[in-house]
Design goal:
- The structure is a homotrimer.
- Chain A is α+β, with helices and mostly antiparallel strands.
- In chain A, β5 and β6 form a beta hairpin.
- The longest helix of chain A has 14 residues.
């Protein structure tokens, strides 16, 4: 059994953003030399997500509006968490809808994906550096 | 370490449906011969889910109405994604609530489950053939 | 390859509660002796969640109000599942938002976490004993 660990650093320029990290994950799998196994990709921050969906800008716009409807950023004062001096309570909620991590299969040394699957980092409280963890186990 | 890979093909007759795939997953585990490990079960399509919950038709009806309330199919034109010619933007949203995949434990060669846990394929844009991936690693 | 399995028993005194189980998961990893690998932590019940977020009571209060807004407990009769004699349909819905399980990386024999990540058991139909499963694989 072999394992491989790697971090990706990201900095979204806006409060909320979706960034395609599929190339970095694919590269980590190649570097690991692992042919068959599982790969965990998770946000190391609790106001961000890692999820799999379509790389289509209209859909990302729909996600943005939908999440803002389900857990609005403002008014800031509607959330108890923001009494701590933060203004990111909504980001902690949005991240639960989109998920913390994905676990993906590795087959023949590659991401074992359907035709449209792409891995995204979902930022809900950006404009600072954040990390994604890649952990691979297999053989 | 051993790994095992299998696909399940499904075709829901309606736009939305929940299909119990526990027997197929249990069979794949038996075929793999793996006694102790982890099993990933994921939709290979981005308008479908794999999740674990109760096999109770009333609950499935509740899920259907609840998801339709949170992310209505119509009017089609409310979603930018549908400007691409698709009508399935709502399916991409519903799938995020229900999740892409489950990771389950294998103990003594069997699904290590609580008494009511069952694995479902959740279809949100059906009436065509779709795939679920099963990837097992262990010993 | 080695594996390790452990159960945690919990009993929330209220219908809904969030309980930090990070110490029990960390202890299970130490007991396993596994240095590099993956750890699955999942609710074995379908009206409960395991998720990762902040250990901040204001945020937990926000989660409680938010989930109650998205899937209200009452009126009981609004859910078909409750026609079976249950009153917990809302718990099956809330659990889908918060998730069934987390998969976390183990590096150098420890939870490989960002600075604020903590693992919680989310109870949505409490006042009885329930179980969480920990399954670790690695080396």
């Amino acid at each position: 059994m072999r394992t491989h660990r790697q971090e990706i650093w990201l900095e979204a320029r806006t409060r909320r953003d979706f960034i395609n990290i599929t190339p970095q994950v694919a590269e980590a799998i190649t570097e690991s030399g692992i042919q068959e196994g599982l790969c965990l990709v998770n946000a190391m921050h609790i106001t961000a997500s890692v999820f799999i969906n379509d790389d289509e800008s209209g859909l990302h716009n729909d996600y943005e509006r939908w999440l803002e409807g389900l857990a609005p950023h403002e008014p800031i004062g509607q959330y108890k968490h923001n009494l701590t001096g933060e203004d990111n309570a909504d980001a902690h909620l949005k991240r639960q809808i989109m998920g913390r991590s994905v676990t993906v299969a590795i087959t023949n040394g590659r991401l074992d994906f359907g035709p449209w699957e792409q891995i995204f980092y979902g930022e809900f409280d950006g404009r600072r550096k954040k990390r994604v963890l890649i952990k691979i186990i297999g053989e």
